[in-house]
């Protein structure tokens, strides 16, 4: 399952891939997406059943339950709400 989160502060998107099983480091679609420089992707996440948090080749691997710590915060959008 793949998602994109709008990253208005960096004029980019943050791709998130949710994986199950032991092959969570295999993500062809995400790798292809990250290889396109014009997309200006600065960070990507893979959520899985793995219990470790680590970053490899620009992709941060985190346990699925860490999704509760994601915040919808944008300084770019906030400046227009004042």
Quick structural summary:
By secondary structure, the chain is an alpha/beta fold.
Please name the defining characteristics of this protein.
globular, 82 residues, 32% strand, 5-stranded mixed sheet, disordered C terminus, 2 helices, alpha/beta
Explain what the structure shows.
With 82 residues, the protein is α/β, with parallel strands linked by helices. 13% of the residues lie in helices and 32% in strands. It contains two helices and five strands. The chain has helices spanning 28-34, 75-78, and strands at 2-7, 12-18, 44-48, 54-56, 59-63. Strands 1-2-3-5-4 form a five-stranded mixed beta sheet, with no helix packed on it. A hairpin with a 4-residue loop joins strand 1 (2-7) and strand 2 (12-18). The radius of gyration is 14 Å and the shape is globular. The N and C termini lie far apart (36 Å).
Number of strands: 5
Kindly, what is the distance between the CA atoms of the first and last residues, rounded to a whole number of angstroms?
36 Å
* Total of domains: 1
Helical run tally: 2
Strand order of the largest sheet: 1-2-3-5-4
Helix content: 10-25%
Question: How does the SSE layout of this entry go?
Answer:
Elements: E1 2-7, E2 12-18, H1 28-34, E3 44-48, E4 54-56, E5 59-63, H2 75-78
Parallel strand pairs: 2-3, 3-5
Antiparallel strand pairs: 1-2, 4-5
């Amino acid at each position: 399952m793949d998602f994109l989160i709008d990253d208005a502060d960096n004029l980019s998107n943050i791709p998130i891939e949710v994986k199950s099983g032991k092959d969570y480091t295999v993500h062809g679609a995400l790798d292809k997406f990250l290889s396109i420089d014009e997309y200006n992707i600065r960070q990507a996440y893979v959520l899985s059943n793995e219990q470790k948090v680590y970053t490899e080749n620009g992709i941060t691997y985190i346990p699925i339950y860490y999704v509760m710590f994601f915040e919808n915060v944008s300084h770019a959008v906030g400046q227009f709400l004042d």
